[in-house]
Amino acid sequence: MIATRETLSQARRIVIKLGTGVVTHDGNRVALGRLHGLVEDFAALHAEGKELLIVSSGAVGLGMRQLGLTTRPASLGMRQACAAVGQGHLIALYTQAFGQLGLTVAQVLLTQSDLGNRDHALCLRTTLTRLIELRTIPILNENDSVSVRELVEYWDAAGVATHTPIFGDNDGLSARVAVAIDADVLVLLTDVDGLYSGNPNVDPQARRIAALSQIDDDVLALTAGTSSGGTGGMRSKLQAARLASESGVATLIVTGREPHAIARALRGEDLGTLVAPQTVRSPKRRAIAVEAPHRGALVVNDGAIRALVERKASLLPIGVIAVEGRFARGDVVEIRDGSGRVHGRGLVNYDATACLALAGRHSDEIDRVLGYRGYDALVTRDNLVLA
Questions:
Q1: Which of 59, 105, 306, 321 is deepest in the core (most CB within 10 A)?
Q2: What are phi and psi for residue 173, nearest 5 degrees?
Q3: Which fold has domain 283-386?
Q4: pTM of the model as a whole
Q5: How far is CA 231 from the centre of its chain?
Q6: Which residues, in sequence order, are bridge partners of residue 162?
């Protein structure tokens, strides 16, 4: 469990979100030197065996630059147009920067509804897992050109632009991605060096808060400001951190403007604000879900999937239609449907040869087919983690 500064170095799967204030100067000019410095840090972490996923803001700002706009458009349509222009330039920057270091990136555009739809979320998890296994670095972003929730601004009685409390920006998106792929830690890179007890620009007594055990309304009340070029602010980051924390993922809010800050913070230095997770997945279930490599797969029919999801049943032989890979009893295998979509992972009770012989059969046939009967199920519920 990643819960203290000392355990940050143990993080293996890391989701990193870059805010607009990190990627750009003034919201619309690329901070090229800073971005390349961060990419070098990311490459070094990748070389250490870390699994990195990057959620990057900046598409709207880069689109504004290309279109010759100096102020953020007031209309939703214009912001979506800017995003459409800027997204290509954003991924091109990452492709070139990582490519110079011998690394491959993959672009993944999604919307909040993708994470809210179970089938889409499972498909996304499968895609991201495969990309990680291929040692690529996924670059994710909200598909701003078709997504409304991130870009819509609300106006209060004083005529000041505010934002919906729903997670509709890349902070919230990164938190939901971190939860979906069982990340060890979510890193929110921003243009400040963490959460303060007050506004350090006006309060000389304000102090950085190094760690939070939880995020309540009093913590949220410390700041609600927004950065100049993006759609989020510290409040958005705290909301995202709370979502991640309540789902068992630690969050580190740290500056992206100080050289090597992320690498230093992940080594345990006292930088930024660390939010500890509120829940803990058992070591065994975490190993099944994330840490242990899978040795093969059991391909199952729709009835088996419904039984696993709706009735929380074990995986019986009759629901299996195919067996992939070579695995031994006790290995981790993926549970897939016929299209290849991964629905979960579990510890298998029989080796691949036995599973193949039992596929499609009733449990009461196990001893006749194998000559022995250890379990009625190929994967028991206690050893199964659904995606």
A1: 59
A2: -60, -45
A3: 2.30.130
A4: 0.70
A5: 19
A6: 154
